[in-house]
Amino acid sequence: MHDVRSDGDAILRLDNVNKHYRRARSGQADIIHAAKDVSFELERGQMASLVGASGCGKSTVLKMIAGLIPPTGGEITLRGEALTGPNEHIGIMFQQPTLLPWRSVMENVLLPIEIREGRKAANAARERATQLLEMAGLAEFASAVPSELSGGMAQRAAICRMLVTQPEILLLDEPFGALDEFTREQMNVEFERICRSREATAIIVTHSIQEAIFLADSVFVMSPRPGRIVKRIDIDLPRPRTPDMITGNRFNEYVREIHDLLFGSGEGASHD
Amino acid sequence: MTDQQTVDPEVLIALAENERKTLIERTPQWLLVLLFGAAVVTVWHMAVTYSGISQLVLPGPYQVLQDLIFTLNNLFTGGYVAHATWITLVEVVFGFLLASAIGLTLGMIIGATTFGRKAIMPYVVAINTMPKVAFAPLFVAWFGFGIESKIMMAAFISFFPVTINTAAGLAATDSNMSMLFKSLEANRWQTLIKLQMPYATPYIFAGLKLAAVWSVIGVVVGEYMGGGEGLGELVRVAASQLRVGRVFAQILLLSLMGLSVFGFVTLLERYFVRWRR
Questions:
Q1: Over chain B, what is the mean pLDDT?
Q2: Which parts of chain A have pLDDT scores under 70?
Q3: Is Transport set as a keyword in this record (chain A) (predicted)?
Q4: What pLDDT band is residue B14 in, cutting at 50, 70 and 90?
Q5: What is the pTM of this model?
Q6: pLDDT at B277
Q7: I want to staple B210 with a disulfide (CB 3.0 to 4.6 A). Which of A7, A176, B161, B225 is the partner?
Q8: Closest CA to A221 of A259, A267, A170
């Protein structure tokens, strides 16, 4: 068994978190383990990726941390306190930008504040939102509507919306998976820069091995049925990460290691 | 570079398609509409002139035109047609507004609450399967011979599309957006007002447009049954006097009224759903 925990002061901690669904099939109850005994810790400022094939439970783990679905076992704690539902200290972002098409970009970015603290607080936060949009290169699109944005721009607006409440932990579910390859790489570089400048603690779920390595300090490799973490790999690459690293030797060694874990040449990937 | 490469390929395609177009395809639509209309009127005129049909049963185009001119003249000089048109318009507008209010409220209850979906929805569907026009005599008995019974009839006939479309629109909310609102700890009311209702507006307007047209039907049915002073009553009287030309002219006014309400709702839709383009 691999030890996937780290030492030091953890801000987020998952302790043997389980999620199973019951499915009735020909009279017999069939239990699907979407996530089994998932344990890891995240320190403040640490970026982690969950990588694995489709259906390995990585999105399930993220949604449990976000409080969108309850775990069937185990505990998730934020600064030592148990998480039981959605939390203002956690920001989440999906594969689709999910901007409300009837609101301007600015109004979309202010939405989390408007819902949590009301319209007044949202108006008071306009300056902060403007700064975020400037950082994301969207300053001149503040009053545009989402349909006027490209896919990459819309996803940058979604990043601003996630950051506007200054959450302690960022959760990203395949954030750039719907973008084309060029935009995706560009977004990875930008996102890494944004996270570094705010010392963000983040978990990125992805099925791209390169993206997982590029963004993270630690990559958690997951395998399906039951969905569990098979290995934690710490990425020892300097920050800021730059696109030329992707073709470097060290980067490719990590790619090979993760690839072997996922596609089962060697131990660890498939023993069930 | 050769000449061929400098020509925009799309232009070439357009040229090629143009060559293949038939005469009908190249004629502007307004001209075709006029030509077809003229053909129908001619056939109509010939049929009336040479078949020996009585003018009392089917008047010729010229007779109808005269009746139309008379009716419009009466309308614009403030005669009894103007009065009737005004009464009917008031009935249609209030019937439509009532239908919209009932439909939106009921639709929101059905679309946003489990109780509404499970307990109320079956009754709404059951009511819709009834031939609602058959209730007209009852509405006269309940609400009298004044405009109230017509307004109620119009609302009764046209609340259904608003209800169903509102409920369907609320249920159609994008699942990612719902997840976003859940992660932001939005309460039910916030989710309804800030997410579900705006998301449902295109659906709601589709229902409102149907209701606009159906309101006119409801008002006319009400007027046929319960007298009153509206255009429906004029149609009924003219028909009983075998003035078919007048009937045609008054029906034209009714359809123009339906078109106006429909157009007004379309304008509102353009404003409220402008984000959808």
A1: 90
A2: 1-8, 24-29, 265-272
A3: yes
A4: low
A5: 0.81
A6: 62
A7: B161
A8: A259
What 8-state DSSP symbol labels residue A244? Answer: G
Domain ranges, ordered by start, for chain A: 1-89+168-272, 99-166
Interface touch B180/A92, C-beta < 8 Å: yes
Give the C-alpha separation, B245 to B255, whole Å: 16
Residues A39, A231: contact at Cβ < 8 Å? no
Question: Greatest CA span in chain B, whole angstroms?
Answer: 85
Alpha helices in chain B, H assignment, sequence order: 3-6, 9-20, 23-26, 29-51, 61-76, 80-112, 114-115, 121-129, 136-143, 147-171, 175-183, 188-190, 197-226, 231-240, 244-272
Domain boundaries, chain B: 1-52, 73-276
- Tell the CATH topology of A1-89+168-272: Rossmann fold (3.40.50)
Residues 6+ apart with CB under 8 A from B150: B91, B95, B218, B219, B222, B223, B226, B228, B230, B232
The stretch B133-143 carries a mean pLDDT of 90
Instruction: Give the phi and the psi of residue A92 in degrees, each rounded to 5.
Output: -130, 155
- pLDDT, tens only, B52-69: 888 888 899 999 999 999
Q: What is the pLDDT of residue A178?
A: 81
- Residue of chain B whose alpha carbon sits nearest to that of A165: B184
Q: Are B182 and A147 within 8 A, CB to CB?
A: no
- Residues from chain B contacting residue A88 (CB–CB below 8 Å): 185
Token pair listed for B94 = 């209030």
Q: What is the pLDDT of residue B3?
A: 47
**Residue A270: predicted pLDDT:** 42
What six digits make up the tokens of B31? Answer: 């001209």
The two tokens of residue B122 are 């079956």
Q: Which residue matches tokens 């409920």?
A: B167
Does B102 score more than 90 pLDDT? yes
Mapped onto helix, strand or coil, the DSSP state of residue A120 is helix
Smallest CA–CA distance from A145 into chain B, residue: B275
Pair A112, B184: CB distance under 8 Å: yes
- Rounded Cα distance, A108 and A129, in Å: 10
Q: Which CATH architecture has domain B73-276?
A: Orthogonal Bundle (1.10)
Tokens in use for B74?
């009466």
Tell which residue, B224, B261, B255, B254, has the closest CA to residue B240: B224
CA-based nearest residue in chain B for residue A93: B180
